[in-house]
Amino acid sequence: MKTPVALAILAFCGILQSVSGYGMLNTLRMGIARQKSTVQSTKNRLERESRQFDSKMSRQLSDAKIHSMQEINALVNPALKSVEDSTKRSTAEGKDATHCYDAAKAKLRESSMKSWNDLDGCRDAVLSSVSDTQNNFDAAITSGQQVLSYYDSIMTSCFATSVQQMESCVVGKLPEGAQLVQAFQSTANDVINNSASVSSTAQVNAINCNGGPVANVRDDVSSAKFEANQCVAAL
């Protein structure tokens, strides 16, 4: 028969064991919290980089279109002025060359409108070419959320009446969690680094594509001026 002193010693030892066990669990909880913080930080960076990628692409494509529109206006407006001046001179000489000017004006207006549509087509084509990069951002962000969910589930899935069982269960799940974190961070770095290259290439592609509509307008300007001069000369 155990004496009260012996029972008290046994109870005290049990308390120490319990405190020690929960201390280990708390350490494991803190380790999980650190891993979650790392994942959340990387996920936040991905979301920030994704927004910046979208913003940069929009700005680059807008700037490229505006530059090409300015080039087109620089071709069309002087051509219209030249034809108009030629028409006025003919009118002063008693010849009605209004229809010559109207024909050139209509042709250049049609050319300009087509060029605007073509520039929009270039923009759409470039955006389509970078859609995989945005999809990669979205997939990586989703992956990060899944890693967070994995860590959130550890303590609840490992709940047990025995502290030692809980410890063993949690410890058993941590290696997989560490692998998930490592894979997620590697993917995040790849996506972010690749997006910089894609952005630079997209800008070049937009400029090259926009050169087509500008060249077409340049040809139409030369043709319209020639036809207008021929029209006036025939009066």
How would you sum up this structure, described in words?
The protein has 235 residues and is mainly α. It has one domain (4-233): Substrate Binding Domain Of Dnak, Chain:A, Domain 2 (Up-down Bundle), CATH 1.20.1270. It is 93% helix and 0% strand. Helix 1 (4-92) runs antiparallel to helix 3 and helix 2 (98-129) packs antiparallel against helix 4 (163-233). The longest helix has 89 residues, at 4-92. It is rod-shaped.
Topology:
Blueprint: H1 4-92, H2 98-129, H3 131-157, H4 163-233
Helix pairs in contact: 1-2, 1-3, 1-4, 2-4, 3-4
Keywords:
Substrate Binding Domain Of Dnak, Chain:A, Domain 2; 4 helices; 235 residues; disordered N terminus; 93% helix; mainly alpha
Provide a quick synopsis of the model.
The chain is mostly helical and 235 residues long.
**How much helical structure, as a percent, in the residues?**
over 70%
Low-confidence stretches: 1-21
Mean pLDDT equals 88
- Beta percentage is under 5%
For the record, the CATH class is: Mainly Alpha
Distance between the termini: 133 Å
Q: Mind describing the biggest β-sheet? A: none
Number of helices: 4
Got a strand count?
0
**Cα gyration radius (Å):** 36 Å
CATH topology: Substrate Binding Domain Of Dnak, Chain:A, Domain 2
Instruction: Give the class from helix and strand content and strand pairing.
Output: mainly alpha
- Secondary-structure element string: HHHH
Oligomer: single chain
The count of domains is 1
- Categorize the overall geometry: rod-shaped
- What would you say the CATH architecture is? Up-down Bundle
